[in-house]
Each structure stands twice: as structure tokens, then as C-alpha cells.
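Question (not urgent): is this output format expected?
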Amino acid sequence: MSYSGTTAATTLVNPPVKVAGSIAVSTVNTSSGLGGGSLWMYKTSDESTNLISTGYFTDGRLLGMRSGDILMASISSGSSVGLLIGVIACATATTNYACWVASTGAAVQSSR
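Got this back:
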């Protein structure tokens, strides 16, 4: 299932969910935009390469995502399941709310 933002039809909505806020962040680096620190969870059937495509979460900033947040994604496609853990980046333009996984710390793929 590809990403559908909060403005999608009710049956298509699949937003990431914030499960913890500002974990382990003692300083905010506003010059680099790495002021995040929240933990997000997401479930999808998209390939992990889609999640690292610029602008994947079209309404990420509206949901509260910030650059530096962490995303844990459960990926299930056919007989394969996987886990992606990465750092979020968000567009800086005020009119662009897009966020994506900018850096993957771990990607685990397995089959059922």
C-alpha cells in the first residue's frame, strides 16, 4: 500500500503514528534542522526504497514530523517482511510539508 496522507479517503488513510516525543534530545540544532527526537511507527507494503524517496510523507510536517525524528517501519510485501529504521528529513519550505527517511540506520529483510 503506498502512502496516503491524512486528507485521503477514510479507507485509504495510512499515516505514521508518533509513539514517543523528544526522546534523548538535550539540545536543538536549528541551523541544521535536526531538532527532532520523536519516535514514529509506520506499516506499509511499499518497498523500503520508496520510504527514502524525497517527499514520501506528503503531509509529514502537518502530522508533527521534524528533521531528526526516528522512524521505525514494518514492511510487508507478499511473503517478505522487513524492518526499516531511519532518521527523518523534512522539507524546509513553509509551503512544502513533505518528509522522508533521509538515512537508514538499519534495514532487515526476511521471508515468512
